[in-house]
Amino acid sequence: MIKLININKYFFKNKANENQVCKDINLEFKEKGFVVILGSSGSGKTTLLNIISGMDKFDDGTLIFKEEKFEKYQSKKWDKIRNCKIGYIFQNYNLFKDLTVYQNIELVLKMNGVILKEEIDRIVDYLLESVGMKNYENRLVKQLSGGQQQRIGFARALSKKPDVILADEPTGNLDGKTTIELMDILKSISSEKLVVMVTHEQALAEYYADRIIEIENGRIVSDKENIKSKKLSITQEQIIYLKDYEKKETNLDDIAITCHLSEDLKRSTGISASVIICHLGAQKNRYLLP
């Protein structure tokens, strides 16, 4: 479906402060599946996602999106592709907060030629139910929590029936429970179409992705199928999502100790608990301590 051949991207090209943010990128994506682009802040992963979506230019190389071939940036063609074939989910939601949930989705539908109110009503109802937001259509976006707003972001991205969903750190501002719920939605979507998600969270990548592409300093350093992929259900109480815990690190002789503390657990139950991760050479052990 999507193919990148020797893609290079520079900021401030041919200037003293030139910075190459994508270096000889060669990737090919199939029609469906869950692909995660994994990397730290500043690694170039979001820039790469923006190039795939046509929201950012590349300087050298070739990009093929289905039947369209790009060797230079063509804004009109990319606008048409994004409007019809790409659903983009943003970390910061990018919703119109003074409009209702219904109006936010209605705008996208009308841009794509759906103008009959009965048809808009039917699609909005279906989308909101699919993301767990049934009966929220008349709620102002600014009255919703962050997790609820991201669900609307998911619904809006799906409203155009895209061929591919691109998601830029979609769970970056969410708590653990909401993160798992929304990742389950993305995983379900990926059974029918291509989902490409950017994240810095390795645990999410390892649990959900069918394929993990690691990027460092603008270069692909690893591209592998993920045989461990599965859903991280919120009913799996033995799974601890460490993002919700306060993190402290220390060293004891040759042992590196990372401690994740839960004050919420202590307040609600009176029990103080920690998750201790010890690194000794190449070995890693985890302990849940009362």
The description of the largest β-sheet is: 6 strands, mixed
Give the strand tally: 14
Strand order of the largest sheet: 6-7-8-3-9-10
Mean pLDDT: 86
Give the SSE order as H and E letters. Answer: EEEHEEHEHHHEHEHEEEEHEE
In percent terms, what proportion of residues is strand?
A: 25-35%
Shape: globular
How would you classify the helix and strand content by structural class? Answer: alpha/beta
Individual helix count: 8
**Contiguous uncertain segments of 5+ residues:** 234-240, 279-290
Radius of gyration: 21 Å
Terminal CA distance = 50 Å
Helix content: 25-40%
Q: Could you write a compact summary of the structure shown?
A:
By secondary structure, this protein is of the alpha/beta class.
List key phrases describing it.
6-stranded mixed β-sheet, alpha/beta, disordered C terminus, 8 helices, 290 residues, 4-stranded antiparallel β-sheet
Describe how the helices and strands are arranged.
Layout: E1 2-11, E2 19-29, E3 33-38, H1 45-53, E4 60-65, E5 68-70, H2 75-85, E6 86-89, H3 101-111, H4 117-130, H5 146-158, E7 164-168, H6 176-189, E8 194-199, H7 202-208, E9 211-216, E10 219-225, E11 246-252, E12 255-262, H8 263-269, E13 273-280, E14 283-289
Parallel strand pairs: 3-8, 3-9, 6-7, 7-8
Antiparallel strand pairs: 1-2, 1-4, 4-5, 9-10, 11-12, 12-13, 13-14
